[in-house]
């Protein structure tokens, strides 16, 4: 079962957010297996998936590490949020593996709940 968060994402998990009816956002700490789970779910259901970090790297033409080194974390977080806002609600992306820090931004959380 998927999980998203309302309010303080560290303390208030919910298991039935309405936003999950059309899109599933996999969230968790870095290295938790979000991309692996998204790939497995995609294979099992035949639905496409997108990994925010991989898509951002593709669009930027460089790794997340290079983006951090060249522009800093704030620039990365802005680009990550912009991409999330573009993908959220887009039926072409029913399964979304978020980055490890995506939930640290309250606007991102609201975007996923909309």
- Strand content is 5-15%
Radius of gyration: 14 Å
What is the number of beta strands? Answer: 5
Query: Which structural class do the helices and strands define?
Result: alpha/beta
* Low-pLDDT sequence parts: 1-20
Number of helical elements: 5
- Which shape, going by the Cα principal axes? globular
Helical residue percent band: 40-55%
CATH topology of the domain at 46-114: Rossmann fold
Give the SSE order as H and E letters: EEEHEHHHEH
Assembly state here? Answer: single chain
CATH C-level of the domain at 46-114: Alpha Beta
Largest sheet: 3 strands, parallel
- Provide the spatial order of strands within the biggest beta sheet: 3-5-4
Break the fold down into its secondary structure elements and pairings.
Blueprint lengths: L3 E2 L7 E2 L9 E3 L7 H12 L3 E3 H9 L3 H8 L1 H15 L7 E3 L8 H8 L1
Describe the protein in words:
- The protein has 114 residues and is α/β, with parallel strands linked by helices.
- It has a domain at 46-114: P-loop containing nucleotide triphosphate hydrolases (Rossmann fold).
- 46% of the residues lie in helices and 11% in strands.
- The protein is built from 5 helices and 5 strands.
- It has helices spanning 34-45, 52-60, 64-71, 73-87, 106-113, and strands spanning 4-5, 13-14, 24-26, 49-51, 95-97.
- It has a 3-stranded parallel sheet with strand order 3-5-4. A two-stranded antiparallel sheet has the order 1-2.
- Strand 1 and strand 2 (13-14) form a beta hairpin.
- Helix 2 (52-60) crosses helix 4 and helix 3 (64-71) packs across helix 4.
- The radius of gyration is 14 Å and the shape is globular.
- The model is unreliable at 1-20 (pLDDT under 50).
